[in-house]
Amino acid sequence: MPNRQAMLSVCNLQRHFPMGEEIVHALRGVSFDIFPGEFVTIMGTSGSGKTTMLNILGCMDKPSVGEYILDGEHVESLSKNELAKIRNRKIGFVFQSYNLLARTTAIENVELPLLYNPTISPKERKERAMEALSLVGLSNRMSHFPNQLSGGQQQRVAIARALAGDPCLILADEATGNLDTKTSYEIMSIFQELNAKGKTIVFVTHEPDIATFSSRTLLLRDGLLQKDSYNTNIQNARLAFENTPSIEEKHLEALL
Amino acid sequence: MNLFSLARIAFKALFRNRMRTFLSVLGIVIGVAAVITMVAMGEGSKISIREKMTAMGTNAMTISPNYARRGGVQLGADESREALEEADVLALQKARYINAVSPLVSANGQAVVGNNNWPVQLSGVSSDYLKIRNYEIESGVMFDDQVDKMAKVCVIGQTIVKNLFPEGNPLGKIIRYKGIPLKVIGVLKPKGTGSFGQDQDEVILAPYKTVMRRFNATTEIRTLYVNTIEEGYAELASEEILSILKERRNWARPTEPFRVRSQEEMIEMVSSTSQILSLVLTAIAGISLFVGGIGIMNIMYVSVTERTREIGLRMALGARSRDILLQFLFESVLISLFGGIAGILFGVLASSLVQKILEWPMSISWTSILVSFGVCFITGVFFGWYPAKKASRLDPIEALRFE
Asked: Nearest residue of B to residue A86 by CA position?
């Protein structure tokens, strides 16, 4: 792997927060590279620094010390507006609680990041949003409102939104955290399909189960990288999804 | 992000919160409608006063003796004031800036024709009086050389015709005034109500010499009416009149013997009163617009807090602070512009209702509409600025985590 150009690379990343008199060291010097086409899970318990890492990787926060290079750009030296542009062009976010705009149709939700990219014409915006929705299998739900969709469908709309801008990095934050097991597998299978198509995915989670679907796991602990391991036995999420009974089926089994 | 898509986003956000938008729009609607109506009321009454004054003759000026003052004490006694004479009339007729001169001497009494009688002031004037006061003859003639002959003739207005000659055709008939018979030789065209509410058709004009000698037994003239050659010559004419009158009297004292007042001054005086009224009304209306603006600010603050997560999301997806600022600013401006448009419509509607029901003269000016619209825009920007600024300063991480 190493001979390739890294998609993102962090070097001695530190982040300190002043908390009253004390200074909290959320990250104490973390270094790693992620290469194009990788599916990485970042794991850690609460307080391990994984949320801080996510914020920095997502260009919403800047490191106190250290370097963060994303697709050739030194993020730590960018202004607020430049960060906004990077988020818009290079990163696709998927959140735990979907964060879809209420009373706004699926297609309009997907179009949202493209609205902030003036180089995309309204026509292209529509086309790309439709394409992204069909990638997650929701072409037939285009004009549904979020409250007319199931949790899994909402998260798929959110994934489509992350894909619409054709970012180099998809950053998921506990994207299955609000979903039941079967739906989680369904969402993970979508991520695996996207990864198979060449998308680089970083998935932040605290569930070890989820990590079995990725190709590599970074384990954070107390602000340091404790473990960086490649997964030799990647589970197939599609199979897991098909083999898991739905909640209704489970109830039925219990009754029988 | 271009302005059009910003406007679309803002419009959608407003539409999603229809009820709230409607209520904050309402505040502006009331404010603007009140401003439009109040200004229309003020302007309308100003214009109608002006029209009535003009009907009286804009070029008309009056000359009357100045009461003398001594050490600030007004002396009302007859001896203290300078009298106008017939010779003054002749002298003023030659003045450059004046084309008509008429004395006005009056007698009070009852006009009697057969069984009918009517209380009316008898006005002694010269033939020029018609020109000065914009009267016109409807039938018959105006007296002319009868003035010098002290002829017992008169010209009457429509109200007099109605009350003393109910069966019509007064020409040639006799009116007895204080026992003296006056022959009706002319009837005036109707003129309507004057600027102070007086009936301008309730007049009996007689030659001034007739009134002076036969009714009042005096040679003193209290008031002279003159007409300037054109509008805008009031000041020049006034100076000329005073210098002619002073020259005739070899006047050397520092005080002015006479007071010359132009119709224009009168108009100014009356319209300044109505101007104060309309200013007060407009100020009250302006306050309600201001309160409407505060309503917008309130709503926008609530909106920013309520939509913190949305703001965080937009920022995470690539919205710059500026985009957020403009979006919220657009929302408040849209609210106030909707309010402005609806307010103008309601204001125009209310104005025409007031005109119909209260019969108050209304004049809706384009200026007030444009100004209201502009004020609305400014209100939207001004009161939307701080909430929008607050929204744009949010930190995307904090905002996304906001519950």
From this structure: B318
Span between the terminal Cα atoms of chain A, in Å: 51
Q: Rounded to an integer, what distance in angstroms lies between the CA atom of residue A256 and that of residue B137?
A: 114
**B interface test, pick of A59, A62, A116 with most B CB neighbours within 10 Å:** A116
Q: Is A45 near chain B, with CB under 8 Å? A: no
Q: Which domain holds residue A164?
A: 36-59+80-251
H runs (alpha helix) in B195-261 = 208-210, 234-249
Domain count, chain A: 1
Within a domain: A19: no
Under the banding of pLDDT at 50, 70 and 90, the label for residue B72 is: low
Q: In Å, how far is A98's CA from the nearest CA of chain B?
A: 10
pLDDT tens across A35-61, in order? 999 999 999 988 899 999 999 999 999
- Residue of A94, A101, A125 for testing the chain B interface, max B β-carbons within 10 Å: A101
Q: Is residue A247 part of a domain?
A: yes
H or E, element range at A113:
helix A106-115
In a domain, A17, yes or no: no
- ipTM of this complex prediction, to 2 decimal places: 0.93
Chain B residue at shortest CA distance from A161: B317
Model pTM?
0.72
Residue with tokens 């992000």: B1
Of A101, A118, A122, the CB nearest to B310: A101
